[in-house]
Amino acid sequence: MTTRTGSVSRTTRETTITVAVDLDGAGTSDVDTGVPFFDHMLDQLGRHGRLDLTVKADGDLEIDAHHTVEDVGIALGQALAEAWGDRTGVERFGDATVPIDEALTRVAIDLSGRPYLVWNCTVPIEVIGTNFETSLVKHFFEAVVANSRITLHVHNLSGDNTHHTFESVFKAVAVALRRAVAVTGTGTPSTKGVLQ
Fold first, then answer.
1. How many domains does the chain have?
2. Confidence of residue 188 (pLDDT cuts 50, 70, 90)
3. Is residue 188 situated within a structural domain?
4. Is 190 part of a structural domain of the chain?
């Protein structure tokens, strides 16, 4: 079987990012962005997506986490797109509903080649930890969606604790992604014959 891996290095005046993914990995994560809560969420993505994920980021955190989170999303989206290539044989669609205590999130993914994000997730607080603005989670997924060219629906159904809410989001995305990239056939899963 062909290896399904992708790696991206991205350097700007604001950040230096390296991301590597293996869709057929064992769920091993090696993440260091300098933003502890974000690292924790990315670790959930790797572990529950059962993909090997390496993320190294050096960003202008003295300003805030915005550039780091956005650029990791861009690089991760590009690495995912490289890893699944033309998507031959993949299931294409994946969905998951994941609880974390009182929080519950439903996610659906289509490896359609058409970037689109539907985001229905409200959280009660604006900052987690010392430097993670909660609005950055949506911004991260916008960057992933645009650069991986997927359709992603995220619907948080319940949750009083913001940490739990976002953990259920990342875990649901991970499980839905694992199901979408599973190799279950041989052709292109589209009546058009291509996914673009």
1. 1
2. low
3. no
4. no
DSSP letter for 90, please.
B
- The domain of 23 spans 5-181
∠ CA 34-120-169, nearest 5°, is 45
Q: Give the count of alpha carbons within 13 A of 51, CB side only.
A: 33
| 70 belongs to a structural domain | yes
Section 172-177 average pLDDT: 98
- In the predicted model, what is the mean pLDDT of residues 46-54? 97
Q: What is the pLDDT averaged over residues 88-113? A: 96
> Helix, strand or coil for residue 71?
helix
Q: Is residue 195 part of a domain?
A: no
Whichever domain contains 9, its CATH number is: 3.30.230.40
Q: How many residues does the chain have?
A: 196
The interaxial angle of helices 36-49 and 162-181, nearest 10 deg, is: 30
Query: Going by C-beta distance under 8 Å and a sequence separation of 6 or more, which residues neighbour residue 44?
Result: 167, 170, 171, 174
CA 180 to CA 90: how far, in whole Å? 7
pTM of the predicted protein model: 0.93
Answer whether 179's CB lies under 8 Å from 111's CB: no
